[in-house]
Amino acid sequence: MTAATQDTQTDYWHDQADEPRICVDARIDPHVHEAYWQSVYWGESYYRREYDFEDYAPAYCVGYIGYAQYGGCFDDAEKSLCANWFRIKGGSRLSVEEALQAIRAAWAHAEQAERGAATATREEAEDEAELLELAGSVIASRRAPAGRRAMATA
């Protein structure tokens, strides 16, 4: 490998390190979920003052990523989620029982966010269909013969 090739590869990987937008299964954006939890974690019923966000962050990550991976019922995925917690917990001081509370909360939030997005998409589609129907009616009325148009407005 030449020095020029190595420099080009180094530049390429350096450019890739600018935190690209990552989505899991096109449903979960980790940046959005992490920002959400960072702003509300201290208000959760399981929050303990001796822990900071860095202690809770891996558990939240396991929860929202786990929801994208497994979906369905939390209880069915709990064993796998615990295994994931032990793999990524790093320096978190949470016990597994404490982490499970945060994991469950993040799972529920991701599930709720997905349902909200699906409802919004469905409502947008219904609104679009109504607009298309209205537009079709307007176009049809403009195409009607003058005599019919007069009767329609009378």
Record the SSE blueprint:
Layout: H1 3-16, H2 30-40, H3 53-70, H4 74-88, H5 96-143, H6 146-153
Helix pairs in contact: 2-3, 3-4, 3-5, 4-5
Describe this structure in words.
- The chain is mostly helical and about 150 residues long.
- The chain has a domain at about 25-115.
- The protein has helices at about 5-15, 30-40, 55-70, 75-90, 95-145, 145-154.
- Helix 2 packs across helix 3 (about 55-70).
Index terms:
154 residues; mainly alpha; 0% strand; elongated; coiled coil
Short description:
The protein has helices at residues 3-16, 30-40, 53-70, 74-88, 96-143, 146-153. It contains six helices and no strands.
Mean pLDDT: 77
Low-confidence stretches: 16-23
Strand residue content? under 5%
The rough form would be described as elongated
